[in-house]
């Protein structure tokens, strides 16, 4: 697909974004015209990362197996890309507090899943929650650990030494029986960031030519890099774009909730903190989504909240509130405004680094080709 240039007027606005973006409204971009192009760019980056991760793993594991190590730590060979997407769009802020009517009636805000009785009271729906959690956050806690972690600590430590060298293994895994970290005069451990050695360094030198060290003055250590960093846009700026575009619709949504008897809601950085409200009301020991600096931008907990072991009462309490949110989001136009705002903010976020991203991808292809040569040799 050919790349579509941004219109001249929009380019000028982007150039001014660093100093005057919030002084004037931005011109809308044609989301439909760009969506496939930007999604392809996003997915190509994911593909390159995953293929290079897999190639690196093959090289390192071959080195380890030559030394007799046949089980490997999965944490050192996991791609954290999240996979390719049908669209480049991330999950939008409003999706966490504004379910559709159908979602609201079926599962509320998922906060009920933190109740102790949830799994036994609603096993089928709780299984849906577990699947949703895994799709959003990865493997659920409590899954059986990989076979590598059943090895004796000394065997695991020996693997880490072979993987990345004695200094690295001592720093990263002091609990496995090695010499442990050095301590200061007060007996406190001294944290360092030694460069990797062992098989990992062999792979780095073969594929990338070597390590690069950058002094980290804040940490008082050296950061080590070898792979080109993927260009990243300004996420805070992107989120401010979104908030600016939804600001006018926020009041209408809050007023609608107030008219339905749910008074006291305030937006916090583009969110309504419904999970914190439900948790404070007694629904679960912790909110599924929380913000330390949020204050109390939600209503006071109701005096007649259900008892903690009353699952049906809590579920009805939550889904009734979720329906109010869903219907108010539709009736006031907030949902439509938020969806459009997120599309525009995310589109500019990726277009801002489009040229740098294509250059990075080309560099990654070169490293992937080199890795494949090493594997073939």
**Roughly what fraction of the amino acids lie in strands?**
under 5%
Major sheet = 2 strands, antiparallel
Number of strands: 2
Spatial extent as radius of gyration? 25 Å
Order of helices and strands: HHHHHHHHHEEHHHHH
The helix-and-strand class reads mainly alpha
Give the integer mean of the pLDDT values: 88
- Give helix % range: 40-55%
User: Quaternary state, please?
Assistant: single chain
The N- and C-terminal alpha carbons lie at a distance of: 35 Å
Gross morphology is globular
Cross-sheet strand order for the largest sheet: 1-2
Which blocks of ≥5 consecutive residues have pLDDT under 50? 7-24
Total of DSSP H or I helical runs spanning 4+ residues:
14
What secondary-structure arrangement, pairings included, does this model have?
Layout: H1 8-15, H2 17-20, H3 31-66, H4 101-107, H5 118-121, H6 123-137, H7 153-164, H8 166-172, H9 198-207, E1 212-216, E2 221-225, H10 235-259, H11 274-281, H12 311-331, H13 334-351, H14 354-376
Antiparallel strand pairs: 1-2
Helix pairs in contact: 3-9, 3-13, 3-14, 4-12, 7-8, 7-9, 10-13
């Amino acid at each position: 697909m050919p790349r579509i240039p941004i219109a001249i007027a929009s380019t000028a606005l982007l150039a001014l974004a660093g100093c005057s973006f919030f002084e004037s409204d931005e011109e809308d971009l044609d989301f439909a015209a760009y969506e496939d192009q930007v999604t392809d760019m996003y997915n190509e980056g994911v593909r390159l990362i995953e293929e290079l991760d897999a190639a690196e793993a093959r090289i390192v594991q071959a080195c380890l197996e030559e030394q007799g190590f046949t089980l490997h730590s999965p944490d050192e060979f996991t791609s954290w890309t999240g996979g390719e997407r049908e669209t480049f769009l991330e999950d939008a802020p409003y999706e966490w507090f504004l379910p559709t009517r159908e979602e609201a009636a079926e599962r509320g805000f998922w906060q009920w899943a933190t109740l102790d009785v949830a799994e036994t009271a609603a096993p089928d729906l709780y299984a849906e929650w577990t699947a949703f959690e895994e799709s959003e956050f990865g493997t659920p806690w409590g899954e059986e650990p990989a076979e590598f972690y059943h090895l004796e600590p000394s065997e695991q430590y020996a693997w880490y030494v072979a993987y990345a060298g004695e200094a690295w293994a001592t720093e990263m895994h002091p609990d496995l029986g090695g010499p442990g970290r050095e301590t200061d005069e007060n007996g406190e451990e001294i944290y360092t960031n030694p460069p990797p050695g062992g098989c990992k360094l062999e792979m780095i030198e073969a594929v990338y030519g070597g390590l690069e060290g950058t002094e980290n003055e804040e940490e008082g250590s050296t950061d080590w890099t070898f792979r080109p960093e993927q260009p990243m846009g300004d996420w805070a700026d992107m989120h401010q774009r979104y908030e600016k575009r939804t600001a006018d619709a926020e009041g209408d949504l809050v007023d609608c909730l107030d008219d339905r008897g749910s008074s006291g809601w305030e937006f916090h950085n583009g969110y309504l903190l419904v999970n914190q409200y439900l948790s404070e009301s007694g629904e679960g020991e912790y909110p599924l989504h929380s913000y330390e600096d949020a204050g109390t931008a939600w209503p006071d907990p109701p005096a007649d909240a259900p008892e903690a072991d009353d699952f049906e009462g809590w579920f009805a309490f939550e889904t009734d509130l979720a329906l109010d949110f869903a219907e108010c989001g539709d009736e006031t136009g907030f949902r439509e405004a938020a969806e459009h705002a997120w599309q525009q903010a995310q589109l500019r976020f990726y277009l801002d680094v489009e040229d740098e991203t294509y250059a990075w991808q080309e560099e990654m292809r070169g490293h992937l080709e080199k890795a494949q040569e090493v594997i073939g040799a």
